[in-house]
Amino acid sequence: MKFPKKQVIIDEPKKKTLHTLKITDEQAKKLDEWLDKHLWAPYKVNYARFAYKGRDVNVVMYESGKLVIQGKGTEDFVQFVLEPEITGFAQMGYDDVLHPEWYELHAGIDESGKGDLFGPLVSACVVADGDAVRQWVDEGLKESKKVTSDKVVLAMAKKIKNTKGVAVKVSYASMEKYNALYIKFGRNLNKLLAWFHATAITSALEQRHAPWGMLDQFTKQPLVQNQLNVPNFELKMQTKAEEDPVVAAASIIARATYIYSMKKLSEECGIELKKGASAEVRKQAVEIVKKFGPEGLKRFAKLHFKTAIEAIDEAK
Which of 37, 72, 133, 206 has the largest count of CB atoms under 10 Å? Predict the structure, then answer.
C-alpha cells in the first residue's frame, strides 16, 4: 500500500503594512504628481502636505518631510512605484545586504528622561540577533523611536521583552538617589549617564554575552567604556544609532520604564506630571514645593535643572 507523500507547508514571510522614510522636497513633488496623474483619491490629514488613498494602501506626506505608507499594499507600492519611480533607490527587503551588522549578535543601548525635569534618567540595554531583529524590522521597530503614544510604546516594550532569546536590562534610580548621585559624580550629567549605561550593559551581558554594542553618541569622551569591566566586548558609538533596530528596541524599553516611573510619581504627588521642562512643568514644580516644601521636590524632580531652581524661588 502506498502512502501519499507528506506535504511540507512553508509559511510565507509576513508582508509589511507600514513603511516610513524621509524624502526630499523634489521627490515629494514628483510623488504628488505621480499619485494625481494615476487618479489616486486625495484626502485631508493634519500637518500633511498631501495624502492619497489607493487600493489597499494610503500615502501621507507630512510637512516634516516624513512619508508614511500604510496598508496591505505597502510592499507592492514601495517596490513597484516609490523606489523605481520616485527615489531611484531600492531599500525595502535589502536590510540584510545594506546593514548586515543589524543581524549580528550585539547590544543596543539608549536612554530616556534626560531632558525631563520630573522622573528618572533611565538607561536600557537590549541584546539580540538574527530572527528577533528581523521580526522587529518587519514590524517597523527601526522607525519607531519617535512614537508619540505612551500606549503604543508600552505595547512595543512588551513585545520586545517577550521576544525569544532577547536579553533586556534597565538601570535607573529613585529621584532622591538620582539627585545624590548627580552630586557624587561631580555634578556632571554625562558621567552619571555613562555610569547608568555601564550598569545596564553589564547586567544584560551577564544574561547573554555579545561581542559588541552600539550606543547613540552623547559625548566625545569614552566615558562608558572607561566604566565597563566586561571582557571580549567592544562598545561602539555613533550619531543616529537608533537606526539600528536593537538600539531602537533599547530606546523603547527605556521610555516604557520612564512612563511607568512617571505614573508612580504622579500618583505619589497627586499631580499628573508632565514631561519636558516647559513653563507648565515649572508650574507643577511650584505646586509641589508649596505642597511638600523645597526638600520635597527632590522626590520627584532633577534638582540640577534650572526649572527646579526657578520653581523653588517662585514658591517662596
Answer: 133
pLDDT in tens, 21-69: 888 999 999 999 999 999 999 999 999 999 999 989 999 999 988 899 9
Q: Is the pLDDT of residue 269 over 50?
A: yes
Mind spelling out the 3-state secondary structure of 48-70? Answer: EEEEEEECCEEEEEECCCEEEEE
Cα 272 from chain centroid (whole Å): 23
Residues 6+ apart with CB under 8 A from 240: 216
- The pLDDT score that the predictor gives to residue 79 is 84
| Nearest Cα residue to 202 out of 127, 292, 116, 274 | 127
Adjacency order of strands within the sheet including 18-22: 18-22, 66-70, 57-62, 48-54, 41-42
Per the CB < 8 A criterion, the answer to whether 199 and 228 are in contact is: no
Sign of the torsion angle spanned by Cα atoms 260, 266, 269, 273: positive
b/e burial code for range 114-126 (CB count within 10 A of at least 16 → b): eebbbbbbbbbbb
